[in-house]
Amino acid sequence: QAIEGFLAKCWSLDISTKEYAYLKGTVLFNPDLPGLQCTQYIEGLQKEAQQALNEHVRLIHRGDEARFAKLNVVLSLLRSINANVIAELFFRPIIGAVNMDDMLLEMLCAKL
């Protein structure tokens, strides 16, 4: 049901490819991941994704003052979904089955 609610909200907002990418970055760059050692760096990436989304919405959807808030509701719906389900949605079609915690740690900390 959580996935259905998330998808219904996405479809009703007609989320663009850029908005989807910024939303994905906001969720994936999670500084609260247990065992993470580079939290400030990841928090910075998350803030950059949020700021980019806000700027995009202001430029593209000038007449819709509430759109950024609506997109944040989408984020709250997405955060209510289990991380493994999110990994299935975002990554399985591209790279196969993945463990979200391992992938984030490898992706973000290996480059520091």
UniProtKB/TrEMBL annotation:
Domain NR LBD residues, every copy: 1-111
Name listed for the protein in its UniProt record: Nuclear receptor subfamily 0 group B member 1
InterPro entries noted in UniProt: NHR-like_dom_sf, NR0B1/2, Nucl_hrmn_rcpt_lig-bd
Classification lineage: Eukaryota, Metazoa, Chordata, Craniata, Vertebrata
Biological process terms in GO annotation: adrenal gland development; male gonad development; negative regulation of transcription by RNA polymerase II; spermatogenesis
Highest taxon of the lineage: Eukaryota
Keywords: Cytoplasm, Nucleus, Receptor, Transcription, Transcription regulation
Organism: Anas platyrhynchos (Mallard)
Molecular-function annotations in GO: transcription corepressor activity
UniProt keyword Transcription regulation, yes or no: yes
Entries under PROSITE patterns matching the protein: NR_LBD
Annotated Gene Ontology cellular component terms: cytoplasm; nucleus
Keyword Cell membrane attributed: no
